[in-house]
């Protein structure tokens, strides 16, 4: 998974990065009416699951739940200045969530990942959105991550990182800013541009060149983009298919800055790795099936060898005729099963194919011997018991 770099502008510069120390008391922006929210107790903040469970039982509705989570993160998660430009800091989303909860410091991906995870666990559809910030209409120097949530079938934007405070002249100011809570996607686009236009949540998404040129009324010259259906289909795709889908869509909407170019390059490289992994997984899957065929053949071989020992002893100790018949007929069915399973396999790897052909050839030879024994047992059963012993001797002249 690609690790995101959060731009310095608008992110958090903290005086302390202690895992246990809370940030200075925050004050709501005066231009926005004071909002009320529940205070999440420390005892439930060890995991996303316990936080979500507490919020569900202590919130009057989903909006209130999201508000309380937003406020909690602003006062309990410090911005991680040390790892701001360390793209390998988070291994994946799960790692971002765990590190954020354990250390109580995070960069934007940690903020967004934790917020998304708690929201999802509370039953609220949420996605982590990656893109680039706009400052004064121009892209910042690093990518960013925020969250989109769905309330009453409408998507809204939340940026728990920018909502926690800001940096002005290299000085951090801790301030709970509600401007970044439940923002309308079309308005938020002027400061938060998703790499993938799907996450503009618009029937007329803007191309990156239109955004660059400030053509906020653009997009209407294109066919209607049914983003709800596309998003529903996208959510069901495999990781490989999602990467392919995103890369194609980002490419179609234009590469107008280095951040988009870097994201597209990352996706293309990721696709190469995922295809290689998918190929390895497929080869391993086929190898497992070939091994299963080999296992069945080896079990059949052991059964046949046991039968041969029984025949070499002239079917002693005696067994009922029907039991002997079922024995050889059962081996024939086992051989058919080996062949049927082996023939169904599509093998492209040369090594796997060689092993499969060896199994098939050995099974074919054994099948002929089993057929001979079926004929012998049939003759044995039809022969009177007084003359059966003679069937075990070959007479040559």
UniProtKB/TrEMBL annotation:
GO terms for cellular component: cytoplasm. Residues 1-19 form the signal peptide. This is Transglutaminase-like domain-containing protein. Residues 100-162 form the Transglutaminase-like domain. The lineage of its organism: Bacteria, Pseudomonadati, Bacteroidota, Chitinophagia, Chitinophagales. It comes from Chitinophaga varians. It comes from the Bacteria. Keywords: Signal. Pfam families: Transglut_core (PF01841).
């Amino acid at each position: 998974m690609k690790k995101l770099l959060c731009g310095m502008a608008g992110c958090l510069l903290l005086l302390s990065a202690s895992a246990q120390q809370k940030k200075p008391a925050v004050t709501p922006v005066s231009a926005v009416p004071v909002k009320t929210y529940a205070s999440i107790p420390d005892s439930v903040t060890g995991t996303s699951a316990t936080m979500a469970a507490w919020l569900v039982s202590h919130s009057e509705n989903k909006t209130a739940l999201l508000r309380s989570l937003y406020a909690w993160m602003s006062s309990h998660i410090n911005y991680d200045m040390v790892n701001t430009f360390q793209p390998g800091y988070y291994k994946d989303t799960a790692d971002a969530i765990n590190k954020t909860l354990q250390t109580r410091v995070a960069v934007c991906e940690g903020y967004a990942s934790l917020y998304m995870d708690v929201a999802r666990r509370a039953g609220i559809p949420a996605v982590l959105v990656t893109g680039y910030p706009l400052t004064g209409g121009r892209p910042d120097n690093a990518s960013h991550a925020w969250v989109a949530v769905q309330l009453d079938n409408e998507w809204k934007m939340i940026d728990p990182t920018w909502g926690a405070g800001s940096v002005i002249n290299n000085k951090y100011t801790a301030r709970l800013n509600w401007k970044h809570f439940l923002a309308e996607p079309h308005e938020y686009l002027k400061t938060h541009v998703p790499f993938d236009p799907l996450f503009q949540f618009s029937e007329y998404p803007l191309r990156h060149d239109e955004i660059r040129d400030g053509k906020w009324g653009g997009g209407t010259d294109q066919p209607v983009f049914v983003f709800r259906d596309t998003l529903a289909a996208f959510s069901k795709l495999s990781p490989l298919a999602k990467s392919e889908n995103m890369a194609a869509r980002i490419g179609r909407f234009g590469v107008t800055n280095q951040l988009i170019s870097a994201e597209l390059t990352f996706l293309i490289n990721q696709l190469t790795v995922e295809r290689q992994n998918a190929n390895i997984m497929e080869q391993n899957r086929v190898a497992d099936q070939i091994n299963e065929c080999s296992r069945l053949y080896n079990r059949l071989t052991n059964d046949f060898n046991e039968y041969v020992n029984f025949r070499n002893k002239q079917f002693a100790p005696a067994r009922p005729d029907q039991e002997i018949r079922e024995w050889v007929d059962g081996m024939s069915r086992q051989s058919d099963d080996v062949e049927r399973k082996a023939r169904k396999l599509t093998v492209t790897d040369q090594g796997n194919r060689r092993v499969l052909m060896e199994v098939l050839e050995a099974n074919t030879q054994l099948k002929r011997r089993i057929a001979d024994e079926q004929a012998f047992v049939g003759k044995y059963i039809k022969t009177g018991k007084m003359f059966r012993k003679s069937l075990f001797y070959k007479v040559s002249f």
